[in-house]
Amino acid sequence: MIRRLKELDLDGKRVFVRADFNVPIQQGKITETHRIESTLPTLRFVLAKAKKVLIASHLGRPGGKKDPQWSLAPVRDVLEKSLSAPVVLAPDCVGAEVEALVRDPRHRVILLENLRFHKQEEGNDPVFAQQLASLAEVYVNDAFGAAHRAHASTAGMTKFFREKGAGLLLQKELEYLGKLLARPERPFVALLGGAKVSDKIGVLKNLMPKVDCLLIGGGMAYTFLKAEGVSIGHSLVEEEHIELARELIAQAGGLGITLRLPIDHIAAEKRNENSITIEGSIPQNLMGLDIGPKTRDLFIHEIRKAKMVLWNGPVGLFEEERFSRGTKSIAQALADSDAVSIVAGGDTVAAVMQAGVQNRVTHLSTGGGATLEFLEGKKLPGIEALEVGE
Ligand code: AMP
Prior knowledge:
Elements: E1 14-18, E2 25-26, E3 29-30, H1 34-49, E4 52-56, H2 73-83, E5 88-89, H3 96-103, E6 109-111, H4 119-122, H5 126-133, E7 138-141, E8 163-166, H6 168-182, E9 188-192, H7 201-207, E10 213-216, H8 221-227, H9 242-255, E11 258-260, E12 264-268, E13 275-279, E14 287-291, H10 293-305, E15 308-312, H11 325-336, E16 340-344, H12 346-354, E17 363-364, H13 369-375, H14 381-384
Parallel strand pairs: 1-4, 1-7, 4-6, 5-6, 7-8, 9-10, 9-15, 10-11, 15-16, 16-17
Antiparallel strand pairs: 2-3, 12-13, 12-14
The structure holds adenosine monophosphate (AMP).
The site of adenosine monophosphate has 18 residues, from strand 14.
């Protein structure tokens, strides 16, 4: 059983919150604050009850060394503004100076410095884990994006706590993604896109028996089309997965699942050349870089019928305006639908944001790799580490 934040005894306690503030930073400025905002409800909830909150996160890949480029200082500024409370940035995440700050009654909110300044974090070192754990009495994990890693702050340190559980964001992720795998609303439509079949094999296999309808777009669709004997020009293809695609198509048929592949394409000779709309087979000199208008209608028609939709992976080279229409129209279709809509994956979430409809989908999953592993049906170490007896 995993305890919810509301079930934990936080009153007057020192509470350690593992957050995922691994945000994009350019020239010292955070360019996308979605991950920070997602954890604010948990932080506000803890702050209302706890004596002290210690917030920890990793940022980038400093490689186990202190590197000012990867300091959490810019995160501190955003947190202080958002929480309307002073936030102290500790000089490190463990050690005597940090312990002194924690003891000092003047500081209520302490942001620990980047966990990955210590190689022991990724090494899940037990001594380091114990040092982190010694700072607090309650452990809350809200870092879904790091839950697929067995690191000291996500796994190792949890065994030192009796009082531990999931933050509101982690809880929300577990609720929506868990529901999707265990008790989906029907019809349940999954739309998978993105560049490669190889990244999605686990997800395809795990979802196949659960969905009513599978829509495949993006670069990965061409491996499936080739498996069906359709000419795909020089579109992206993974020859080594054609056989697997054939098996998945057969499996869908056997299970009575509606499987839809693109029937038309926005194609070009190269990514930066003029584009044309093509139905059916793609000539040798062209590659498919977005779904065409008929496919858009087909996919949107299936989405309209759904009670639950999962979308992972853009259906075209959406970074280029000319090949972004398919992805935009899918984002819009999700926003217009009454279904429970769940969007997973960094690029797909970015596409929903670009379309400005982020408030009209039910759930934007914050974990890239973690979300995919969850959808593959794998047990995530950061989630297992929160399990307590009944
Ligand atoms: P993924 O990380 O596997 O979800 O793939 C996302 C990437 O796939 C994005 O950068 C898209 O531009 C790219 N992509 C989607 N459709 C196509 C396509 N038809 N051809 C080439 N790249 C594509």
